[in-house]
Design brief:
184 residues; 1 helix; mainly beta; 9-stranded mixed beta sheet; 3-stranded antiparallel beta sheet
């Protein structure tokens, strides 16, 4: 289950997220001190899992840019309390773990060149480290700019050719359909 909230009023969105978390039986995912620490989460058939305790509460959905430098939201913002553990969505190698533009960023490269990024995160891993799916890579820092509540994780995914993906699609995989070729 994924709960997507869209609301032009950030305080109202935060209240809705908290209410949904409590109503869904996961009190603490948004307002608590770290959510469901150590919750058992098996990787999906794709080998990826959520970097935060389930269910994901999406505060800002993925909006792909029209072109490489165009406007858009190149990931999803997931509601979670500051200080919560953030986990690697998949097995890979940490390629960046440091402050960037005043906030902590962790980027992990996975098989095939897919890269996932997590911010704002105080890293507990270093560049060059191998990580497995579900391994703690840091804790969420407070105050992500643009999030409805003051705290949320921005989770992004990018292919080697710099095409951005909705990171939630990593959890379900893709359906490939071959269409008949019409010879002109």
């Amino acid at each position: 289950m994924v709960l997507v909230l869209t609301c032009p009023d950030p305080p109202a969105a935060a209240a809705l997220a908290r209410a949904a978390a409590v109503a869904g039986g996961v009190a603490g995912t948004v307002a608590g001190a770290g959510g469901v620490a150590g919750a058992a989460r098996a990787p999906a058939a794709t080998g990826f899992l959520l970097p935060v305790p389930p269910p994901p509460i999406v505060l800002t959905a993925f909006t792909p840019p029209a072109n490489r430098f165009g406007a858009g939201h190149r990931g999803v913002d997931l509601a979670i309390a500051a200080g919560s553990e953030i986990r690697s969505a998949g097995t890979g190698i940490v390629v960046f773990a440091a402050d960037l533009a005043g906030r902590g960023v962790v980027s992990i490269e996975h098989t095939g060149g897919l890269r996932t990024t997590y911010e704002p995160v105080s890293a507990s891993v270093t560049a060059g480290a191998a990580v497995s799916a579900g391994q703690v890579i840091g804790v969420l820092q407070a105050g992500h700019p643009g999030c409805a509540p003051a705290d949320c994780l921005h989770w992004g995914a990018r292919l080697p050719d710099r095409v951005y993906l909705d990171p939630l699609s990593l959890l379900t995989g893709w359906e490939v359909r071959l269409l008949p070729w019409a010879d002109p």
